[in-house]
């Protein structure tokens, strides 16, 4: 699977997300992950869309995104150097016997415990998708109660 990342700067207006999602669903394009949050300018939001599509289809998606009224900028991450990150929150059941093992795995991956009870730990980790996948793989032997991921976010590296 080859995942491609597109960043879309949009105006903060009612219905923009619906129109962009409609563009994808109406043409049968699959969104692998979608992240939307305010940008450095309060009147704009940045959408990071990750798709699993062929080059020709991806070119079509970018052209169609650029035609939408509330789209300010589309960044195609294929031909640039980029910084990618993802965040994961995971709640795992713990016992007296395995609590220290779980904390050691967290330490190895530089994950943080952000909430704890007698029976659970809620863990936060950020990094590359590969790092997140390895962490989840290590945690599979424990009692994962809840797992949520942000999906990929990205910024292009500045030109030198």
From TrEMBL:
Pathway: Amino-acid biosynthesis; L-valine biosynthesis; L-valine from pyruvate: step 1/4; Amino-acid biosynthesis; L-isoleucine biosynthesis; L-isoleucine from 2-oxobutanoate: step 1/4. It holds the Pfam family ALS_ss_C. Coiled coil: none annotated. GO terms for biological process: isoleucine biosynthetic process; L-valine biosynthetic process. GO terms for cellular component: cytosol. PROSITE patterns: ACT. Keywords: Amino-acid biosynthesis, Branched-chain amino acid biosynthesis, Transferase. It catalyses: 2 pyruvate + H(+) = (2S)-2-acetolactate + CO2. Its EC number is 2.2.1.6. It is an enzyme of class 2 (transferase). GO terms for molecular function: acetolactate synthase activity; acetolactate synthase regulator activity. Residues 5-79 form the ACT domain. Belongs to the acetolactate synthase small subunit family. Catalyzes the conversion of 2 pyruvate molecules into acetolactate in the first common step of the biosynthetic pathway of the branched-amino acids such as leucine, isoleucine, and valine. Dimer of large and small chains. This is Acetolactate synthase small subunit. It comes from Akkermansia glycaniphila.
């Amino acid at each position: 699977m080859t995942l491609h990342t597109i960043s879309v700067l949009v105006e903060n207006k009612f219905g923009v997300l619906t129109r962009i999602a409609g563009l994808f669903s109406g043409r049968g394009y699959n969104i692998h992950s979608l992240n939307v949050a305010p940008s450095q300018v309060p009147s704009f939001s940045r959408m990071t869309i990750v798709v699993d599509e062929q080059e020709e289809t991806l070119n079509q998606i970018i052209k169609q995104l650029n035609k939408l009224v509330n789209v300010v900028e589309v960044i195609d991450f294929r031909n640039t150097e980029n910084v990618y990150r993802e965040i994961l929150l995971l709640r795992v059941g713990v016992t007296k016997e395995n609590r220290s093992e779980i904390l050691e795995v967290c330490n190895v991956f530089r994950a943080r415990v952000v909430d704890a009870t007698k029976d659970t730990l809620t863990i936060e980790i950020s990094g590359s998708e590969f790092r997140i996948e390895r962490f989840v793989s290590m945690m599979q032997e424990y009692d994962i109660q809840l797992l949520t991921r942000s999906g990929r976010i990205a910024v292009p590296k500045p030109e030198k």
